Amino acid sequence: MSTSAGLDPFDDDTLLEEAARWLALLHEQNAATTPEFEAWRCASPKHEQAWARVAAPWRLLAEHATAPELIALRGAALERARRTVRSRWRSRGNRLLSTRALSAAAAILVAMGAGAFYVRQLPTVYRTDIGERRVVRLDDGSTIGLDSLSEVSVHHSKYSREVTLVRGQARFDVAHDVERPFSVQAGDRKVVATGTSFDVDLVGPDVVITLIVGHVVVLDRQGNDLEAGGQAREAALPKEGLNLEPGERLVAPARLSTAARGAPSLQHVNLERATAWQAGQLVFDDESLAAAVERINRYSSSKVRVTDPAAATMRFSGVFREGETQAFVDTVKQYLSLEESVRTDGTVELRRRE
After folding, report:
1. Strand 348-352 relative to strand 304-306: parallel, antiparallel, unpaired?
2. How much is the pTM?
């Protein structure tokens, strides 16, 4: 067994074995402590260090394993430790464990505690399929409303609440907590809030952030400390971040790179129309055809593609119900003078009329 900080290589294993023995004995007796245990623990600072190394991961399991799989993990670890203790027990007056049994018990307790710590670091992922919407309530009281074909990754700690929008669109209603800022990462942009409601949409090469209620600050991923120049700098936000007011929408390239096109733009929007997707209504307000097609494709297995680059940049406005793919195709064909062709897999391709 490797040596931990503060324990000498010579007696590291012995002290860890003794600590594991005491932990097993206390659980066997269903006791928090005993006079004999306290005497051993206070006999030397190294005893206290050994106890901390064995007990800390076990407390981690007890205090934070609220998920069913972690509850089962703790129960399994305790049972394995008890079985090891019982199978290797020998009676010598003070009922000492054999060295092999102690080593096994220490390994079980430390390894299972480390496993619980690893699991706690993993984010929780929520996603929706085509045509599905769902609302997720987080442990801090915040809620996330996911649009169709969307995905978020959530990681909460004692000091922060961090969410990553992996794809699609989501509305965030944030529970107020000044000491734990709530942030949403979307591409290279980060939205920071303490208690507010806002919408984030990853569509095509852009991220669209709409503030509904409250106050948010939008930052670039690395504080705008950009090495690249040119278009990348044009796409950057102010170093102190950009403050949004309710009813404002920021449209910016999702990625800060030399391939980014266009500078961020701030718009005033109708919030009722901006949040209409939550009721299954798609509102396109002077959007590019490429962006409109990407939204439409979230709601149906029948896909639409724009094969003509010039047609992809055409601007379009309209209102549709989710899943009305053919109605959308018929409208843009007439409105933008496009023609369609259908592939063998059912995909509709749009291009300018010749």
Report:
1. parallel
2. 0.64
